[in-house]
Amino acid sequence: MPVLDIPSSDVETYTAFANTLADAAKPLALSYFRTPLDIISKLDESPVTIADRTIEKQMRDMIEARFPTHGIYGEEMGVKKGDEFTWVLDPIDGTKSFITGFPLFGTLISLTYREAPFCGLIDVPATGERWHARPGQTLFAGKPSVTSGCEGFSEARFYTTSPDMFKGSEVEAYEMLSRAARLRRFGGDCYIYGLLASGHCDLVLETGLQPYDYMALVPVVEGAGGCITDWQGKPLSIHSTGQVLASATPTLHEAALKLIA
């Protein structure tokens, strides 16, 4: 793994800085939450607000001041090329939730090294919850976060943000996996991956995601003992298609991959 080339002291520095970014983003997000907002439709028809842009600009300014050689890949302001490190930012993951007053939106921050994410963070401003991960460990409320250990569909709890995201042949895969699980629930965007990392659900299937939607999720899920890949079982990268499967255990993940293949 490329991460092995990074001194542990540097990993600590980057993880701490990711938390600093989230600390700066949180009050900005809350200052706009449940207030009248100008909503603009992007080319992909997803809504963007002044809050998204304000938060991303704040984080980008902080990164450029602290690590001027690092690249930045943000949802709202595009890509700034840099060295082997790139920060991937989603200021408000779950913008539709945000603009409708639903509190389970989050800020996603990850740092990649040679395009592989090695530290990541899910911050949920409205609830005060945060998962942050470094190689081999995910923390929640200062304590290690661990997946449920579920290995079979008969006990699995399934989540997806919305059934509407699945199109064409993807609908069959979604129906097969969600119906095989013990129960299925909807909504939550990045929050459901935090729930998986803390052992409260066992399977997440989604599609149509962008790198800024999933790169921060990879260290969080893996650091808690779970698995997260594309639908073919390949590691997620900035070049992935946006089909994401996350599972509590390798055994459950392998079974899920076979079912949706």
UniProtKB/TrEMBL annotation:
Task: Report the cofactors.
Answer: Mg(2+)
Q: Which Pfam families match?
A: Inositol_P
Gene3D superfamilies attached to this UniProt entry = 3.40.190.80, Fructose-1,6-Bisphosphatase, subunit A, domain 1
Q: Could you tell me one molecular function GO term of this UniProt entry?
A: inositol monophosphate phosphatase activity
**Keyword entries, A-Z:** Amino-acid biosynthesis, Histidine biosynthesis, Hydrolase, Magnesium, Metal-binding
What is this enzyme's EC?
Answer: 3.1.3.15
The record lists the catalysed reaction(s) as: L-histidinol phosphate + H2O = L-histidinol + phosphate
Q: Which InterPro entries has this protein been placed in?
A: His_9_proposed (IPR011809), Inositol_monoP_metal-BS (IPR020583), Inositol_monoP_superfamily (IPR051090), Inositol_monophosphatase-like (IPR000760)
Q: Does the keyword Amino-acid biosynthesis apply?
A: yes
Q: Is this entry keyworded Transport?
A: no
Principal EC category: hydrolase
- Pathway recorded for this protein: Amino-acid biosynthesis; L-histidine biosynthesis; L-histidine from 5-phospho-alpha-D-ribose 1-diphosphate: step 8/9
The UniProt entry's sequence similarity note says: Belongs to the inositol monophosphatase superfamily.
Q: Which domain of life is it from?
A: Bacteria
Protein name, UniProt field: Histidinol-phosphatase
